[in-house]
Amino acid sequence: MKKVAIILFPGSNCEEESKRACESAGLVSDIIRWNEPKRCRAYDAFILPGGWSYEDRIRAGAIASHEGVMDAIKEESGKGKPVLGICNGAQILVESGLVPGNLSEQGKFQVELALAPNHNPFVSGYYCTWVNIKKASAKKTPFTSLVDDVFPIPIAHGEGRFVSSDASLLKKLEESGQAIFKYCTKQGSVIDEFPVNPNGSGNAIAAICNKTGTVMAMMPHPERASWMRQVPGMSSQGERAGPGRKIFESLREYLK
């Protein structure tokens, strides 16, 4: 049976929610500590959950990206195993270079992106709200085959703005189909300004994957939209599957 490892770093706080979301989608999952890298070989996919690994010191995700477990995940992802980073997990993937996933001449992952501090007129720093995102790419990934074109989902972060010192990089990622999700209106219109774009992310990008689509870094929290009771105005629909669950269900189907 295929199994998903949810990686717990010191400061993670969404590991249990991510596990419940996996299980609700029919995935077998275990929470694996950051100091157990050898256990990664026994798993078929990996989720890096949200939280505040190492208190976001230096930069969000910077310290966790250098842990030995990330070397193990790089090795396993090289075998084609899917890796999903959510919020702080996305920051760790960006800091490790697994997203966008380009290699240097020495064969090491290059850090080409940053998830910079939020920039909007409402608040400087941590911002929590519900937004809408849409599939912005036709690229096939393990996480998007069952996902609706437009759906509501929450964000909760202080550093979620995809940026790069290379002004052309985000455009190249869009052209290659690696900009998987974008912030949008309920009707699906991408508007690159607040409040539709809640954090000032470049080109309103909410999620980016590597070239093969097997590693994805997304700032919104699908595990917090896995039941309709979590969605604003939908509490009467209770335990019905929410829109975020389809990301985990897509992973289930991929692993089959």
Shape: globular
Unreliable stretches covering 5 or more consecutive residues: none
H/E series: EHEEHEHEEEEHEEEH
The main β sheet shows up as: 9 strands, mixed
Straight-line N-to-C gap: 9 Å
Q: What is the domain tally?
A: 1
CATH topology type: Rossmann fold
Tell me the structural class: alpha/beta
Question: How many helices does DSSP assign?
Answer: 5
Q: Hey, roughly how much beta strand do the residues contain?
A: 15-25%
| CATH level-4 homologous superfamily | Class I glutamine amidotransferase (GATase) domain
What is the CATH architecture descriptor?
3-Layer(aba) Sandwich
Produce the secondary structure layout:
Blueprint: E1 3-8, H1 15-24, E2 28-33, E3 45-48, H2 68-77, E4 83-86, H3 88-96, E5 114-117, E6 127-135, E7 150-157, E8 159-163, H4 169-175, E9 179-184, E10 205-209, E11 215-218, H5 245-255
Parallel strand pairs: 1-2, 1-3, 3-4, 4-11
Antiparallel strand pairs: 5-8, 6-7, 6-9, 9-10, 10-11
Task: Give an account of the 3D structure.
- It is a single chain.
- This protein is of the alpha/beta class.
- The protein has one domain (3-255): Rossmann fold.
- 18% of the residues lie in helices and 24% in strands.
- It is built from five helices and eleven strands.
- The chain has helices at residues 15-24, 68-77, 88-96, 169-175, 245-255; strands at 3-8, 28-33, 45-48, 83-86, 114-117, 127-135, 150-157, 159-163, 179-184, 205-209, 215-218.
- The strands form two sheets. A nine-stranded mixed sheet has the order 2-1-3-4-11-10-9-6-7, sandwiched between helices. Strands 5-8 form a two-stranded antiparallel sheet.
- α2 (68-77) links the parallel β3 and β4.
- The longest helix has 11 residues, at 245-255.
